[in-house]
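Follow-up to my earlier ticket, as requested here are the two runs.
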Amino acid sequence: MPRATINDVATAANVSTATVSRVLNGHKVTSSTSDRVWAAVGTLDYTPNALTRGVFAGRSNTIGVIIRDLNSPFYLELMRGIDKVATHDRSLVMFANTFNQIEREAAHVQTMDEQRVRGLILTTGPSTDDRTKHFAERGTPCVIVARKAPDLVPNLHSIALDNHEAGRLIATHLIECGKKSIGVLHGGSRTSQSERIDGLRETLAEYDLTLHDDVVHVAESGNDVSVALDEIFTNARAVGRPIDTIVCLTGLLTTRTYEVLNERGCHIPEDIALIAMDDFPWAKTLGITVVAQPSFDMGVEAATLITNGNDHPQHIVKNPRLVVRQSCGESEEPTE
């Protein structure tokens, strides 16, 4: 049988299509009229056309989400949080992955605009800030996740981790474990990375320990980890301070770092300690101590900022959490 239309419902209920629309959208009509319309809806098994409703409303009921890299456990948990709120709100979610490519970021923002999404959640870099700000100024709520929006305006929000505190947690734990010579792998020039390094370096300095620049190296992907580790170990040995700990400041590098160290015969934690950002399913099995981000909660809050309709700009800072396992030679029983 053909799908029932709003005209069919109107005919069956002996009302106008405008009245049917008012009933379906929760506007006030007489109880007898409402009863007739809902009875017709049930009899005809009618479902509203969301596309048509979006045209009349000037926007869809879809939340757009632009993610930098779906390989990251951080983004997977973030999306779960977004989806939970969207499902409760009876909204759809449109995900787009940029693969860390700036040109794809701009293209996806443009596409979300063309689709008239009800709101936009982004984990993109600064290259899209002007376009996102313009999006918000035209009335579409936008939330930048994992960094602070540089210029908050109405409808533009941001949610970020206290990255300086994350670095401090790493340094404090390593000091408690007796570690003194630390090498760092980080993901590049993003603000989150530099803030974590600052927190790590400043806390080490409080204990008269120095994080030297020659053992802090970029690995933009897992393919770069082996070369970056070579640089760290070579530079440290050249000045007589062998590395006793590797710190991964982005979750994407953790598994590959673990693999490379094992391939080289380094036993964790007996030969070298390992601590990383972001928890992931295999971290517990591998015994890796991590500083976890509340990425699921960040997703929930980001989606809630979209659905609650509050246009007052907000910047929300979330606290990291140390998850102690065995990879730093902890002397106590691991806890979570």
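Run two:
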Amino acid sequence: MKNTYVLLLAFFTATQLVQAQSLSIEQLLEKELSGFNGEAGLYAEHLVTGERIAIRADSIFPTASVIKVPIMLGIFKQIHTGKLDLDTALVYRDSLRYGGSGIMQYFKDSTDTDLSTLLSLMIGYSDNTTSLWCQSLAGGGGAINELLDSLGLEHTRVNSRTEGRQEAWKKYGWGQTSPREMASLLIMIRREELFSPELSQKMYRLMTKVIYDEYALSAIPPYVQTASKQGMVSDSRSELVMVNAPSGDYVFYIATKNNRDTSWDNNNEAYRLQRSVSGMLWNYFEGETNINLPSRKSEETSPRE
């Protein structure tokens, strides 16, 4: 039995498995999210078939560190316009240090580095120090928000250290988005629609090197490539994932807020939800039907909104 099956079975009792046979994938996911002690939203899309699953997909959620994807976008705009280069030399100073996740905060003052290192640490290790540094190098939150607006993203914004966003920062923290918008941003990157094919490819490569694989990624076989970004604060845990699956790419964004469980162990309720939703989507899109969950390959594939 594959590890994916074992993981999924952990979330479904025998009774639930029988009931699942009569429910659509969207109904199953709605049931899974509605049982969460907090607020949860989901957007998923199969890039080949165009099938969509949307559950509170246009509600606004805190991004936490997922805002580092728009910050990365801001940096690549600067690269595209010739103002920065991946090899741009930089010097780390203690005044840049910011706590939380990441390792650059432990660098010695006056350490030589470069923009490529900052980007790798920001995305791969969710490094806070490099992220705030990159936000500044990108022209600040205001410049990044103008870029997001030009892409048709209404709700996705940088709030922290951004003029005019203080009230939004109090409510949502560093950044905010909706599941549909954040997923659409990753789709643009995957389809090489941003700046140039080469720069889009570089952004996507960065997102395939994330180290946080204990959550949604753990429900996807390790030999399948994924591009992702995770965001975690006490009462909000979210995850953006593109899966380069055998039957075709699919993307999803699972967002939570007002979480009752604010623990940080691996059994946190939001982490369990992320693993469960990811496993259900993998099973559905990849047609693993022998665990009695619905499969796209055994249903009519009409787009869902």
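The only thing I checked on run two: Residues 33 and 40 are 6 Å apart (CA to CA). Let me know what else you need.
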